Amino acid sequence: PADIRDATQARVRSPPAPVTDVARLCVCDLLVAQCDVNCCCDPDCSPEDFSLFTSCSVPVVTGDSQLCSQKAAVYSLDVEANPPERIFKLIDQVNPSIFCIHATNYKQALYLKSPEIPTPENFDQLLDKFGGATFSAEPDSWNLDRDAQNPPDANETSRYEYGVPVQTEDAFLRLPSPVVSSWCSDANPAGFLVNQATKCIRSVSVEKCDSIQALSMLFYINSSILAVPKSSQMVNITVQSIVVQSLNGMRTLLSSSDVLRLPMVLDELCINAVLGVNYHITHTDTGEIIEAAAAFVLGAISKETLSIEQSFEISFTQENTQPVPLSGNPGYVVGLPVRAGFQPQGYPFPAAFLSNKHSQLTILHSTSTQDCLAAQGARAPVLFGYNMISGCKLRITAAMKCQPLAQTLLDVLKGQSFPEYVASFGNSQAQDVLDWVPITQLHISEQNEMVSHTLQSSCQIPVSLGIEVKWTKYGSLVNPQARIVNVTATITTTTLKQLPSGRERIIPITSSVVFTDISSPAEPSYKAWPTIDIKLPFDFFYPFV
Asked: Which residue ranges does the record annotate as region Disordered (predicted)?
C-alpha cells in the first residue's frame, strides 16, 4: 500500500541516530584519572583546572566526518570571566559535501573485525567466496526500522575497548599493585587488553590470617566479570590451578583445583595464604569477554613474618587463536628472544609468515661434553642485544664419510628448520609482510689441510656459523624503538683432505651472534649560522687578548 511505502521511505530518509556520543568523546584525554593540560573535554578536570587553561587543544569534537548531518561538541574558554571558565556547546553540523553518508544501516561496518588470515586449510573456502569478479558484502538482513536500529542505549558502548577497566558486578577487576610506595594497593583496575605484571608488599599477621581478605582466594574470584560493560551477562572466574609453596620455597601443583583453600592458622603458621594470582581472560574479536580463569600460588607464613611479597599478573587472549609471545611493543627489548619464522613452500601468495616451532632465532647450545654429535638438537634462543658465542668439538676419523658428516654438521649449526625471516619489531604480526626481514645466507670457504674421508676427492664441511643482526633506533628521539633492518647468516666451510688410516683429529665447530647498531647520529633541529671568511685587523680585540 502507498501509505506503508511512504512510511518506509520516510524512515530511510531520516538521519540516523549517532553511533558515537561526541559529548563523551575526548581524544586528548591521555592520562588515567588525571587532568590533561588544555584538554577542555577531559572529564577528570575540575573548574579549578579549567581556570588555569590557556586554550583548548581540541576545540571541536565530531564523530564520523562522512555523515551528512551529525552532532558536534564545541569547547572554548571564557577568559573574561573571573576566574576563566570553560564553555561547552552541542551543535548540529551539516556536511557541505554532496558525497556524504545519509544512513549507517550496515551494522558490520560499525566495528573493526579481524580479517580471516588465509592458510592452506581455508584457502579454497576463501577463494570460492571472494575469488570471483564480484562478491557480496551485504549483511543477512537490512532493518529499516530506526527504533530497532537505535535503541535508547545506542550511545552506550556494547563492547570493551583497549584500556577500559574490566567491570565486575560490584566494581572492577582488581589487580593489586604498588602506588606510592611498595605496599599493595587494591584500587588498581585491570585494563582490557593491557597485559600487566606487578609485585607489592602486604602487611600480615598470623593471628589475623583468616580475616585478611587479600590473603583469601575468594577475594579474587568472588565477583563475576561483566561480559560487556554495563550488561547483565556475567562471566564467572574459574580456578585454573593451585600451586602450594612451602616455607623453603618448594612448590607443588595440586591435582585438583575444585576445592577452595581458605587461609587458616595451624601450628603457629598461616597456611593457604595467597602469594600470587595469574588471571587469564579470553575475549572475542568484538571486545566481549567469554571466559576468565585464575591460577593461584598459596603458601605458608610463619609467626615471625610481618610482611609478604605478592605477585599479580593478567593476560588476554582472543578466542580461537594461539598466543604468540612478543619481544617488545613495538621495538625489541634487550634480553628478549629475536622472533623468527619462515614462509611455507607452495603457499599461494607471500601474504603471511608462519612462525617456526619456537618462533625464535636460535643457535647451537653448548653442552658439558662439548661433543658435536651429542649436541645435535640442543638450541639456545638468540637474545636481542646480546653478543653470543657457542661451540663444540668434532672428532673425525679416516673411516668417516664426508657427505653425511657435512650434512650432520650443517644440522648442528643451523638446526633442523633454520628460519627464513626475522621480525623487524618485537610485536610484528605474521600477516604484516613488510614487518619481516629476510635472512641473507652467505657461504665462504677457507683452505686448510685438516682431516679426511673415504673418498678420493676432497669435500667441504661447515665449521662455523656467524649471524650478524643490524638494528637501528626507530621513531622519536625521546623514546626510540629498536628495529632490526638486516640479518646475515654466514656459513664458513673448510676442505677435508685424506687422513692416514688409524689417525683421528679434533676440530672446533663454532656458532656466534653479533648485534650491530647502525643508527645514524641525531641531527640538530637548528641550522648552523653562516660563516664569513674575512681577516680581522690585528688590534681588533685590543686591549683584550
From this structure: 138-158
